[in-house]
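Exercise: predict the structure of this protein bound to 8-OXO-2'-deoxyguanosine-5'-triphosphate.
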Amino acid sequence: MSEAVHSADGVVRAPRAAVEVAVGVLVRPDASGRERQFLLTSRPPGKVYAGYWEFPGGKLEAGESVHQALARELHEELGITIGASRRWHELVMDYEHARVRLHFRLVSSWSGALQMREGQAMAWETLPVASVPVLPGTIPVLRWFAQEWGHAGPTHAG
Ligand SMILES: Nc1nc2c([nH]c(=O)n2[C@H]2C[C@H](O)[C@@H](COP(=O)(O)OP(=O)(O)OP(=O)(O)O)O2)c(=O)[nH]1
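Solution:
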């Protein structure tokens, strides 16, 4: 069965190979002790979709597993060392600049203080997300949270 491809902008393009991307969904407990806060970061200046909010992560390098790529990217971007990561969802998103296969992994333990090493901004968010604008590839993740938490209403502002 072929994989569903989500268009980021509504344009349907010819099939092409997807770039594999490891994405970290860092979660922490809210005031009631439930893991309902998650970290969003803004895309750094100079990258496509600069200023859009996303989950931290990046492309796999040759020979890396998704977890290894995630650990490397989160260390490079945020200065933290992650513990285990749990496979969560996968999604193919088609942008004008590339088709990407996003491997979302949940991370609830890490060491080190968060540092924004690439000029990003960060926000601990919950639903509905207040940071704007969010990257198209981020919106399905907010829907998965909404389903799991029984959250009704908008998932993000704007
Ligand atoms: N990091 C991240 N990328 C995402 C998310 N959602 C989404 O569609 N993407 C897309 C945007 C980019 O096309 C691609 C990730 O590429 P990137 O440019 O951020 O990766 P990278 O850090 O390895 O970049 P570079 O070294 O090539 O500059 O995945 C997300 O939540 N986080």
